[in-house]
Amino acid sequence: MSQSEIKCPNCGKWSKWTNRIDETCPHCGAYLDPGRFMYAEEQKGIKERARTTGFLVIKKDDDPVIRLLKEIGSWIRWTTFYGISVIYIIIAVMVILYGLVML
Ligand SMILES: [Zn+2]
Predict the structure, then answer these.
(1) How far is the CA of 13 from the centre of ligand 1 (A)?
(2) Which residues sit with Cβ closer than 5 angstroms to ligand 1, an ion?
């Protein structure tokens, strides 16, 4: 693996670049690749948020009753979602059939 040099975007001095996302400048301490670092941080944040605020996320340390309630909750949620879709399809089919009968 070859080491390359990178110009610091903050102070303009050259330093060794080990290709790490969180590499900082030895001269001024700024991130050498702020764009990539921000992106990585953002992705981490999104994952973290999904884990903590996600709907009815079952965690390993939940007790069995909570876990069961969460499972029922997400089951009801999905059934409702699909149930509504089915009702719409039925209505659409009935409208079409009604139209055909009227012809
Ligand atoms: Zn610098």
Answers:
(1) 6
(2) 8, 10-11, 25, 27-28, 30
pLDDT the model gives residue 55: 58
Statement to judge: residues 28 and 73 lie in one domain: no
Write down the pTM of the prediction.
0.38
Structural domain including 61 reads 57-103
Structure tokens at 22: 């969180």
Distance 38 CA to ligand 1 centre (A): 17
pLDDT in tens, 43-91: 888 887 776 665 567 677 778 888 888 888 888 888 888 888 999 999 9
Task: Please give the tally of structural domains in the chain.
Answer: 2
